[in-house]
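Q: Convert this sequence to structure tokens.
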Amino acid sequence: MQGALLAVLDDLRAARPGAVTDALTVGDLQSDRGAVARELLGVEYNLARLRRLGFARSLQRVRRDGGDWSEAQDLVLAEQLADSYFRHRDKDPALFEDTLPCLETLRPDYRIGLLSNGSRLPEAIGLGGIFEVVVFAQDHRVAKPDRGIFEVVQQQMVLPPSACVLVGDHPLNDVVGAKRAGWHAIWIDRDGGGTYRPPPGCDEVPVAVITSLDELPQTLKGL
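A:
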């Protein structure tokens, strides 16, 4: 994602040269996309459209600061920037080295599914054939941490919540969301700090903390 957004910044600066675009950062692009997502919470879950609207919001910054482009021109450019973003994002699988070995170790003994607020198909990142079910929030108009998206997985896999374990790195979406849905939650701390801090206003904690997926098979045995 970071690399794709850097490529978009290059495209944007080429299309709209000037001090304002030179000053834009990846953080600005993410902030604009986040603002759009919050405004459309509960209405729009299509991530590709949210990304396009986020780029359109970023282009409004340029127009407000002296650009003489029309809104229609900005919308066309936003579409082009979104195409560039997804093209760059999808050309590199960007898997952690421990991902495939862990999944292959788990497959004989566990049923494995993918639950994501994202939109990258497993086949696009070298994980085709791994998952029994693939559940994207945008296909069901409900997203983590809402328990409704966890219930979709339960229905598709015909499992009670107590039989489900979510492994994720997001304290709110993955840990709090899973625990409130009645699932077990394992927090993966890729930064290696090892100390889990619940989000403000939450007291849910994971059943285990790991720093690498290499630790997951043994951790699951202990549940």
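The longest helix spans residues 71-90.
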